[in-house]
Amino acid sequence: MSHALKGYPMGSDITIKQREIRFCPLHPDPEQARTASWAIREVDGVHHTEPLGSHLLQVRYDITYVTLEIIDRALAEMGFHLDASLMSKLRRALFYYTEETERTNLGLSNDITTKIFIDQYQRRRHGCRDPRPRHWRHYL
User: Fold this and answer.
1) pLDDT for position 61
2) What pLDDT does residue 125 have?
3) Which residues contact 23 (CB under 8 A, 6 or more apart)?
4) Alpha carbon distances (Å) from 121 to 73, 81, 106, 124, 138
């Protein structure tokens, strides 16, 4: 984290965000916030996660690595249900827009994807792995 972005070092106060993620209470997991906290704790750029209740998660992260939009999308893909109230949707849309604008103003590319979560996906045991060596995979 030693190089600077237009005079601002990475990890400075302007790139650290603290947000609350609200979950829908109609979910089989009554403690979505705690489960989600464990799911995103090791992601690059996430500094701190703390469940503030069974359906409210506080997360602190660095937008030079990850944005709220990416965190929300990853949580949704993992099966968590985000709060769908009008106020929550408006708040999320505002945060998504401001974080992307801040990233653009800092000279960062806008092509952040869920590649951050690939490492966690590769660690999981599942049946989607091809045991053949790479050079044999194009053959049936």
Assistant:
1) 95
2) 63
3) 32, 33, 36, 55, 56, 57, 80, 81, 82, 83
4) 15, 20, 30, 5, 23
